[in-house]
Structures are given as C-alpha cells and as structure tokens.
Amino acid sequence: MSSGDPAQTPRRVDRAGLVIAALLAALAAVLVFDARGLRSTAMYGMGPEAMPVVVACGLALLAIGNFIDALRGNLPARESADPVPVVLILIGLALLIAIIGFGGGFILATSALFVTTSAAFGRRAILVDSVIALVMSILIYLAFDRLLTLSLPTGPLERLL
Amino acid sequence: MMDTFAALAHGMAVAIQPMNLLYALIGVFLGTAVGVLPGIGPALTVALLLPVTYKLDPGGSLIMFAGIYYGGMYGGSTTAILINTPGESASMATALEGNKMAKAGRGGPALATSAIGSFVAGTIATIGLAFLAPWLVDFAVRFGPEDYFALMCVAFVTVSATFGDSPIRGLTSLFIGLTLGLIGIDKLTGQARLAFGVPELLDGVEVTTLAVGLFAVGEALYVASRRHHSEEKLEPVRGSLWMTKEDWKRSWKPWLRGTLFGFPIGALPAGGAEIPTFLSYSTEKRLTKYPDEFGKGAIEGVAGPEAANNASAAGTLVPLLTLGLPTSATAAMMLAGFQQYGLNPGPLLFAERPDLVWGLIASLFIANCMLLVLNLPLVGLWVRLLAIPQPWLYAGILVFATMGTIAAKPSVVELSMLAGFGVLGFLMRRFDFPIAPVVVGLILGPIAESQLRRALAISLGDPMTLLQSPISATLLGVALVALLAPFVLKGLGRFKANED
C-alpha cells in the first residue's frame, strides 16, 4: 500500500484508489456476465436480469468517479499500517476454518483464533493464552450447548465433555 | 389517541410478565456489557448478541432486543467518556466534552448526565414513537409497491450520499451492498444469480454474517494494523458519581433540546444520528453561559448530544416498525432480528401481531428505566470491563463474533465469507468508505427490487407508473434532490474557494 507522507504531497495520483476503481469496474463486468446467463420469463416489466444490469451501471459510474478522485489525489490521508498483525489474525481465521472443516470441533478452533489474535495484539505468552483460550471456549461451549441448546460443531474435545 | 393508550396498555401488560421482564433485564445487562467494550457500537452489539436469542420465541426475543439496543447505546457513551474511543460516529460529540470532563476528575457527573439525559430523551422519544407510529401506519397502508420503491430510493440516497464526507464513497459502499443483495435465487423466477455453482450462496448472503464480518472482524483487523500509533488510555472515575445542583441546572435544558433535535431527524427516513448530535453540540456551545468551558469539559456538551443520540435511536424505530425501513446500521440489525422469525415490520405487523409490536414499544420504556437504575450503581463494573487488556479483549471479540456464525451455519463457505467480509471491512475503514450503507444495501436492495418488479407487473410494464402516483413522484423527487445536493454544494464550495 502506498502510504508515504500524504500531508506533504496532497495532490498525487493515489495508486490504491486506482486499484479500487479497477476492482469496481471488474465487479460491474462480473454482474453483466452473470446476468447474460439469466432467462427473462416476465411477460411484462422487468425480468431477473434487469436489476443486475442497473447495479452494474451504477458500479461502472462509481468506478469512474473513484478513478477521478484517485487521479486528483482526493482520497483522505492514511496513517501507516502494520501488515504483520493483520496477517496473524487472518492466519487465525484460516486455522479456525480449517479446524472446523476437518471436524476438529468448536473448542480447538476458537482457541486457535484466540491465541493468534492475542499474539497479533502484542502478547508473547502463548502458553498462558492457550490455557485461557481453552478454559474460555470450554465455558462458552457448555453455556451455549447445554443452556441455550445451540448446536456447535463437535470434535474430539467436545466428545469428552 | 385513545387507541394508542389502549394499545400501549396492552403492550405494558405483555412486557411486565415476569419472564419478559427477565428477558429485558438480560438484554439490558448483555447490551451494556458488550456495548461498553471499546470499538463496539450498538449495531455490532446487536449483531453479536443475535445468536443468543435464536432459541427464544419471537416476543421474548424482541423484548430482549429492545434491552440490548438501549443497553448498547448506554455502554457506548460510557466508553466515549472514559477512553475517548467512540464506538460509532454518533458518540463522537459526547466524547469531545465527556472525555475532557473525565480527565478533569469529573467523570462521575459526565456519566450521570449522559445516563439521566439518555433516560429523559429515550422516554420522551419512545412516547413520540408510540403516538407517531399508528398515524404513520394509517398513512402507509395506502402505499402501493411503486411508493415503497420510491421510499427506498430516498433511504438509499440519504444513507449513502447526502450526509457522508464523500457522496462517491458512500454510494460505492451502497452499491457493494446492492451487489451482495443480488446473490442467490431470484424469488420471482427461481433462477440463481451470482451463485457461481456454490450451493451455500443460493440462499443469499446472511445479514448477520455481513454485519459481524464488516464491524467486528474488520474493526479488529483495523485496530491491530495501527496498534503502533497510540495506546488508548482509560480515565479512572474519580470523585463523586453524583451531579451537583449546578450540574442539574445546566443539564436539563440541553437534554430537552437534544431530544428535540434527535427524535424528528431520527424519525425521517434519512438516517444518521451524527447530524442531531453535532447540531445539539453546536447549539449548546452557542447558548451556554460558560463558553470558556467548552473544549475543557462543559457538562452541556455531554448532556445535549447524548440526549440527541438516544432520541434519534428511538426515532429510527419509527420508519423501521411502520414501514420496514432501516435507516441506520443498528436499525438494519434490528430488522435482521425480525426477519429471523419471518416477521416483516410494516403496517401489516401492527394489524396482525399488535401484541408483538406494542410489547416491544412498552419494553423500550422498561429497558430505559432498568438502565437508569442499573447503570449508575454498576458503573464500577463496566469500568473494570474497560480495563481488560487489549489482546484478550479483541481475541475475545473475535471468538464471540465467529461463534455466532458457527452456531448458525457451521460451514467452511459461511466462515470464509465472514473472514472475507472482515477483510472488506478493514479495507473500507482504511480507505475511509462508510460501512452502514453496505448493510442497508444488502437488506433493502432485494426488497426494493421486488417492489419495483411488482409495480411494473401491475402497470403492464409501463415505467410511468412511478411518476403517476403522487406519493411516489414526490419521494423520487426528494431522492433526486438529496442525491444532487452534495455535488452541487461541493461545486459551490469550490467556486467560493477559487474566488478567495
């Protein structure tokens, strides 16, 4: 991401803004492409393909608007962002999805997310956090599974309870 | 008039059943506890607590919702005052003076004036809701599909373009929401749109998944990415909690004025609590006898905006309950709460399930009283919640956020969507795109489309039907003006700047 020092160079082409404009245009194209596969069965009025085309036109116009804003450097100033914690949290979410997907159960999945997020926010005591995470997710599991009778995914740990 | 009293009395009878009182109490407690966490506004509070109500009956769940809603508002202002991190833009005005008061050792009176002001404003505004709603319902039964479509156009424009910093970015957010709303099976013809062969997408995007992803996951990613900039500082509550006689004298007029700003603006299908709170702030600043205190912690600057904030929250329930029209992210989450029971707010709901609607309105009164009694004595407990170290706080928020999705639909696709919306929320925060229009677009987009298609089917495909109904023509005119106004004003501004 191009952050630099926006305060000193207010009128500069914003590269991130150009990417946003391109993504909006691509989204509009996807909508039109998808709408072409729909059959219009309505005798009167609009079929199912009309609304996607309208939304696509809006997106295309907004892509142009965002493009102009980016060229003029009209985007609000941004502070620098640290990518490491963001990636850590995303790894945590990926772990959660993988554990749920492979039947590892609720407790292990949320504990993994807890520990990675806590690490992303600067904690380095992974062992302590793991214990806290396990205790907390077991309590949540019991409260929701037994008291509110919501069914949460079960894995090896849940079957022991 | 008498009908309203009778209906309200009936609603009270529903709301004071012991079980329902308990639901309201749990809602108020949970709402405050979650709302007080930094970075969590009322919308996210409602979204996070939605799964808790899955297994209740609709009546009890809506009553708990009323408590969560008001509790989240109270909790948000506590955070704004004590650590200057407003969870939502509507608490920004409160944070301006409130945090200064807390720094000057007057955190207690600041919390008290905001709690009592919220109570006063919430009560007056809920009375307003009770009397305005039946009247609007009478009006709304005459609405045809074309009128509903036009009304939604007004909501789309005002929520996204009119009041934000940049109409282009607001509209971009709205159209992302509209795009997400297209995903799934088209209800009229049964054809799948934008599903790309993924079976989970055929049902469309779940509102709660989108809201929790954008608000909770997005916020956590955003805060994590800029943690190196500054640590938030918690101001301890020192000295007396109670307001002095002087504080009362300086607070009661701002409370009433704030209510007068908040309720009407909230009740318009225009949305946004920011406008009334900042209007109230600037009014108090102009009218105060202590102008030198503003900027250093003037109690009027807390009392007015806080009242305006709560009054407008009750105001947004007017279009939500009578027209099914959410005009804020929080109202959109309330609508999602109704929809989880297949209930659609609007004139029909007033006719078919009066016990539900009036029970909800009566519960708002009760929730408000509970909050007043509960909040001031328990403020020490909420302050301790604020002191949870940031790593555990956000880790806990993320666990709770994903838990809702895991409980509702434990599928890899749904959880990936949650993570994807989290990334979207992060990028939108980073590049300063507003988030509420996405949620409103997702909820209202499909409704607007079906109303438009119904209108065109009735008129045998003649689009002039939109202009032949006077209601629809007027509303479309309003929408057009609201859409063009910010561009024209901006042009004028640039013209002026060039002249200087």
Give a description of the structure.
The complex is a heterodimer of chains A (161) and B (500). With 161 residues, chain A is mainly alpha-helical. Chain A has six helices and no strands. Chain A is flat, with a radius of gyration of 24 Å. Chain A starts with 14 loop residues before the first helix and ends with a helix. Chain B is mainly alpha-helical and 500 residues long. Chain B is 74% helix and 1% strand. Chain B has 20 helices and two strands. Chain B has a two-stranded antiparallel sheet with strand order 1-2. In chain B, helix 6 runs parallel beside helix 10. Chain B is globular. In chain B, 62% of the residues are buried. The C terminus of chain B is likely disordered. The chains are: A mainly alpha (161), B mainly alpha (500).
In a few lines, what is going on in this structure?
The complex is a heterodimer of chains A (161) and B (500). By secondary structure, chain A is mainly α.
Descriptive key words:
heterodimer, A: 161 residues, mainly alpha, 6 helices, 66% helix, disordered N terminus, B: 500 residues, two-stranded antiparallel sheet, 20 helices
Quaternary structure type: heterodimer
* Rg over C-alpha atoms of chain A, rounded to the nearest angstrom: 24 Å
Number of strands of chain B: 2
Structural class of the helices, strands and pairings of chain A?
A: mainly alpha
- Give the % helix of chain B: over 70%
| SSE topology string of chain A | HHHHHH
Q: What is the mean predicted local confidence, pLDDT of chain A?
A: 85
Distance between the termini of chain B: 56 Å
Q: What is the tally of helical segments of chain A? A: 6
Structural class from helices and strands of chain B? mainly alpha
End-to-end Cα distance of chain A, whole Å, is 47 Å
- The dominant shape of chain B is globular
